[in-house]
C-alpha cells in the first residue's frame, strides 16, 4: 500500500480575488488620505504646486490646487468604506492618468519641479534634481490598484456589499 502526502491547498482565484480587492481599495484609500491630508493645510501651496507645471493660467491652477486635496480626501473616504467603489476607482484612475501626463509633460519640457503629490511641490532649488521616473512608476502602481477596482469593485466589508446584500464572488455580473 502506497501512502501519498496530501497536496497543499492552494487558494483559488474566486476566494482570493475579493480580498485582493479589499487590499487594493484600502491601499488606494491610504494613498488619497496621505496626498489630500498633506495638502489640505496649505491650499495656496497646493495651488503653487499645480501652477509649477505651467499647463494652465495661474488663477485656474490656484483653484485646481485648492480643490484637489478635498477631492483626494473624498476619494479616500469612499474607498475606505467601500461606497461607490467603481466610481471612486474610475475617478482615481482618471486623476492618476492626469498626474502621470503632467509629470511626463514637465519632464519633456525640461522643468525642474517637485510633483507636489504629497505636499510641497513647485520649482526645485539649484542643485536639486527631479525624481520624475520614480514618481511615474509610483503613480502607475496606484493606477494598477484603481484598474483592479474598476474590474472588480465589489469587496467584502464594504458599504457596496452591504447595500447589495450579496457576497462578492468571481462570477458577478456588474
What would a concise description of this structure say?
The chain is an all-alpha fold. The protein contains 6 helices and 2 strands; from the N terminus they run H-H-H-H-E-E-H-H. It has a two-stranded antiparallel sheet.
Q: What keyword list fits this structure?
A:
174 residues; mainly alpha; two-stranded antiparallel sheet; 2 strands
Task: Describe this entry's structure for a reader.
The protein is built from six helices and two strands, in the order H-H-H-H-E-E-H-H. The chain is elongated and about 75 Å long. The model has no long low-confidence stretch (mean pLDDT 91). It has helices at residues 13-39, 43-51, 58-81, 85-108, 132-151, 159-164, and strands at 113-114, 122-123. The protein has 174 residues and is mainly alpha-helical. Strands 1-2 form a two-stranded antiparallel ribbon.
Major sheet size, sense and barrel closure? 2 strands, antiparallel
Gyration radius (Cα, Å) is: 20 Å
Strand content: under 5%
Element pattern in H and E: HHHHEEHH
Contiguous helical run count: 6
- Global mean pLDDT: 91
How far from one another are the termini?
51 Å
Q: Output the structural class.
A: mainly alpha
Provide the helix percentage: 55-70%
Overall 3D geometry?
elongated
Number-wise, the strands total 2
Spatial sequence of strands, sheet with the most strands: 1-2
- Given as residue ranges, the uncertain stretches (5+ residues, pLDDT < 50) are none
Amino acid at each position: 500500500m502506497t501512502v501519498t502526502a496530501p497536496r497543499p491547498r492552494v487558494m483559488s482565484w474566486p476566494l482570493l480575488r475579493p480580498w485582493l480587492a479589499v487590499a487594493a481599495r484600502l491601499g488606494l484609500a491610504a494613498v488619497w488620505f496621505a496626498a489630500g491630508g498633506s495638502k489640505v493645510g496649505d491650499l495656496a501651496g497646493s495651488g503653487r504646486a499645480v501652477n509649477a507645471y505651467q499647463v494652465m493660467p495661474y488663477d485656474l491652477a490656484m483653484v485646481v490646487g485648492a480643490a484637489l486635496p478635498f477631492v483626494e480626501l473624498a476619494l479616500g473616504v469612499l474607498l475606505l468604506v467601500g461606497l461607490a467603489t467603481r466610481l471612486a476607482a474610475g475617478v482615481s484612475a482618471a486623476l492618476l492618468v492626469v498626474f502621470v501626463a503632467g509629470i511626463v509633460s514637465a519632464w519633456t519640457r525640461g522643468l525642474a519641479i517637485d510633483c507636489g503629490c504629497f505636499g510641497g511641490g513647485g520649482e526645485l532649488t539649484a542643485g536639486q534634481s527631479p525624481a520624475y521616473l520614480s514618481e511615474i512608476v509610483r503613480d502607475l502602481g496606484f493606477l494598477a490598484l484603481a484598474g483592479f477596482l474598476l474590474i472588480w469593485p465589489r469587496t467584502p466589508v464594504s458599504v457596496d456589499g452591504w447595500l447589495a446584500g450579496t457576497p462578492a464572488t468571481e462570477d458577478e455580473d456588474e
